[in-house]
Automatic annotation (TrEMBL):
It comes from the Bacteria. This is 4-hydroxy-tetrahydrodipicolinate reductase. The lineage of its organism: Bacteria, Pseudomonadati, Pseudomonadota, Alphaproteobacteria, Acetobacterales. Its EC number is 1.17.1.8. The gene is dapB. It is an enzyme of class 1 (oxidoreductase). Belongs to the DapB family. Residues 117-254 form the Dihydrodipicolinate reductase C-terminal domain. GO terms for molecular function: 4-hydroxy-tetrahydrodipicolinate reductase; NAD binding; NADP binding; oxidoreductase activity, acting on CH or CH2 groups, NAD or NADP as acceptor. InterPro entries: DapB_C, DapB_N, DapB_N_CS, DHDPR_bac, NAD(P)-bd_dom_sf. The keyword Transmembrane does not apply. One of its GO terms (cellular component) is cytoplasm.
Length: 259
């Protein structure tokens, strides 16, 4: 199996190279904006400047690049038969639409986080959102990441919040509360709150809290190494080969039944 890696010279891209090889697959090459940073990659590994060029060399592309590239990458992959494993977060409505349109032609696995543990936390958060009434149980999501992270809340935290909102039958944008500061007034009924902490070199920590007047339930996930994201993405790539066109999630890769 030939797997291409978008952003191959980046931090996650290098881990993906190692995990693809460890899985017994072939690294077909990768895209990069900085060929001079290729030191340390396997000798002779083909490097490309466009997704179109990479797609000609592989069966699946793993992509952890930037949301700004999603629409152009979707356009480049449509009609190629190449599956697309996408870990990019922070997509706009237009970019999400480009993804859905492309899924009519190619196999796409899109996840905010490819960790099996986070996938299960999201599933449990949805179940708890469905089972615990919003007027009795306040939902809060706390995340902490390394000091270099530029977005908040994290894409994973938002994905967990979306799972809670789905369980409650509401749209996250209608009930989301982030960054409380000053005289905010009492907590809004049914709100899903977010708090973002930054410091050190923490890979990723997420806590989901459901708190009533009588009890509190907490779901926690700690990532100790970024490699878990690469390992999960390669697992998704191996799963995606030969699948029918469509938009899939990590829950599909893990074989979880629909709720």
């Amino acid at each position: 199996m030939r797997i291409g890696i978008a952003g191959i010279t980046g931090r996650v891209g290098r881990l993906l190279v190692e995990e693809v090889l460890a899985a017994g697959a072939t690294v077909a090459g990768g895209t990069t904006r900085s060929p001079e940073q290729a030191a340390g990659l396997p000798a002779g590994l083909p490097l490309f400047t466009t997704m179109s060029a990479l797609a000609k060399e592989c069966e699946v592309v793993i992509d952890f690049t930037h949301a700004d590239t999603v629409a152009s990458s979707a356009q480049a992959l449509v009609g190629t038969g190449v599956a697309w494993v996408l870990g990019t977060t922070g997509l706009s409505a237009q970019q999400n639409q480009a993804l859905r349109d492309a899924a009519g032609d190619i196999t796409i696995v899109h996840a905010a986080n490819f960790s099996p543990g986070v996938t299960l936390v999201r599933r449990l958060a949805q179940m708890m959102g469905q089972a615990l009434p919003a007027d009795s149980y306040d939902a809060e999501i706390v995340e902490m990441h390394h000091r270099q992270k530029v977005d908040a809340p994290s894409g994973t935290a938002l994905a967990i919040g979306q799972a809670v909102a789905l369980g409650r039958g509401v749209a996250l944008e209608d009930v989301r509360e982030s960054g409380r500061d000053g005289l905010t007034g009492p907590r809004k009924p049914g709100a899903i709150g977010f708090a973002a902490l930054r410091g050190g070199q923490i890979v990723g920590e997420h806590d989901v809290l459901f708190t009533s007047a009588d009890e509190q339930i907490t779901l926690s996930h700690r990532a100790f190494d970024r490699r878990i994201f690469a390992t999960g993405a390669v697992r998704a790539a191996l799963w995606a080969k030969g699948r029918e066109a469509g938009l899939y999630s990590m829950e599909d890769v893990l074989g979880l039944p629909p709720l």
